[in-house]
Design brief:
The protein is mainly alpha-helical. The chain has ten helices and no strands. Helix 2 crosses helix 3, helix 3 packs across helix 4 and helix 9 packs across helix 10. The termini are far apart.
Length: 194
């Protein structure tokens, strides 16, 4: 049977009967759609090929989960499956816990220059900078103790200790937008007092 002329539903049935070529034909048909959809997530923190891979996994799951009684047909069912798989992978990549994985340094990449220098500047904390931050924090809090609210003081403390907006929001029990607003108020108040 020529697989090119078979419907998607016929190919799914052939695959269930043990025909691996039917699965290859389905993937050949849907891979351009999966690639096109994955390219929409350029800023997700994942490489496009990784998103395509996630889409293919969702698509293969669709092949095995599809039932003939599905009214919408295989095309709609498979589309929902691979799109959801790509969306989920992109969302996971944007979570705070995955940031270290998204910002890795390749050991084989010549463009990063001298690896020890790169590691020194990007990973290790400079003790001098830590002392300077601590002094700035102490000075800002002692001079302006009546100017800043308790929330603004805690936010400033976390900010100067090097926390990200996401980390500060978790520790303070608020949204990252509230953290940003508090830091904007702190800047305005400290500028007015200086």
């Amino acid at each position: 049977m020529p697989y090119c002329s078979a419907t998607d539903e016929e190919l799914v049935q052939l695959w269930r009967n043990g025909c691996d070529e039917a699965e290859v034909e389905l993937i050949r048909r849907y891979l351009p759609k999966i690639r096109a959809y994955a390219s929409r997530f350029r800023f997700s923190g994942m490489e496009r090929d990784d998103l395509v891979q996630e889409g293919l996994i969702g698509f293969i799951k669709a092949i095995s989960a599809y039932r003939d009684e599905n009214i919408s047909g295989f095309s709609a069912f498979a589309g929902v499956c691979f799109r959801n798989s790509i969306k989920s992978a992109a969302a996971r990549a944007l979570e705070d816990k995955n940031i270290p994985l998204s910002n890795y340094l390749s050991l084989s990449d010549d463009s990063i220059g001298n690896l020890p220098d790169t590691l020194q500047s990007s990973i290790f904390v400079d003790p001098e900078q830590t002392v300077i931050r601590r002094e700035l924090l102490d000075e800002a809090l002692s001079k302006n103790s009546g100017v800043l609210s308790a929330f603004e003081k805690r936010t400033l403390t976390l900010y100067l200790s090097g926390c990200s907006y996401g980390e500060m929001a978790k520790k303070l029990g608020c949204s990252p937008k509230s953290v940003d607003n508090a830091l904007q108020r702190v800047r305005r108040k400290l500028k007015a007092v200086s």
